[in-house]
Design goal:
63% of the residues lie in helices and 0% in strands. By secondary structure, it is mainly α. It has 2 domains: 6-27 and 143-217, Helix-hairpin-Helix base-excision DNA repair enzymes (C-terminal) (Endonuclease Iii, domain 2), CATH 1.10.1670; 36-137, Hypothetical protein, domain 2 (Endonuclease III, domain 1, Orthogonal Bundle), CATH 1.10.340.30. Helix 2 packs antiparallel against helix 8 (126-137), helix 5 packs across helix 6 (89-107) and helix 9 packs across helix 11 (179-192).
Length: 223
């Protein structure tokens, strides 16, 4: 909101957390996985793809490639075909194969536990790394996906379009123990009441008190 101090933004974030927690009392990662490697592969596949589609693809994928060694040795064309429906399948297949080769060579097939080590792997950005660290190791992190990027801007919590800068801005405003939760809440909100094409501002508990974008849209509609 215009002229809002950092202290006021932090207070507003706490209210947003409370409202969204009431609205979505059981938020969790939407990707289905049984082992750490399966989460890593699923998150790579989720780029520019819905979790629903990824969850449709992964059961068959993990049956054909059950471990790190299988992915590392995979025929690239076969792997591409198995994930084709997730989009950008050539880049994703190459990154999965290269990532698993690095995991096998440098980490005995296990996932590293630091952000720096994870983002050094092929196909792993900060979003993917923060998902892994939060889900598997309980490490606090802000996951900036398309929903978090868009809604945090609508809420006036950041003015940036750069995911790294957005992550930094939110880390300042959101209490650290709530970083993972806040990300999940915004993701769920983006999938339900605040989709990009047709946000349901009339039904949104944030619109009237906490969302500058909704207030601006309301003023325009009254003109």
């Amino acid at each position: 909101m215009a002229g809002e101090s950092r202290k006021a933004k932090r207070a507003r974030v706490r209210e947003i957390l409370l409202e969204l927690s009431r609205l979505y009392p059981k938020v969790e990662c939407g990707l289905v996985y049984r082992r750490p490697l399966e989460l890593l592969v699923a998150v790579i596949l989720s780029a520019q793809c819905t979790d629903v589609r990824v969850n449709q693809v992964t059961p068959g994928l993990f049956a054909r490639f059950p471990d790190c060694d299988a992915f590392a040795a995979a025929d690239l064309e076969e792997l591409e075909e198995a994930i084709r429906s997730t989009g950008f399948f050539r880049n994703k297949a190459r990154n999965i194969k290269l990532c698993c080769q690095r995991l096998r060579a440098e980490y005995d097939g296990q996932l590293p536990r630091s952000l720096d080590e994870l983002v050094a792997l092929p196909g792993i950005g900060r979003k993917t790394a923060n998902v892994i660290l939060g889900e598997l190791y309980g490490r606090a992190g802000v996951v900036v996906d398309t929903h978090v990027k868009r809604i945090s801007r609508l809420l006036g919590l950041t003015a940036s379009a750069d995911p790294v800068r957005i992550e930094q801005d939110l880390m300042v405003l959101v209490p650290e123990p709530c970083w993972n939760l806040f990300s999940h809440l915004l993701i769920w909100h983006g999938r339900t009441l605040c989709p990009a094409r047709r946000p349901a501002c009339d039904e949104c508990p944030l619109a009237a008190r906490f969302c500058p974008a909704a207030a601006l849209a309301s003023k325009r509609s009254r003109r």
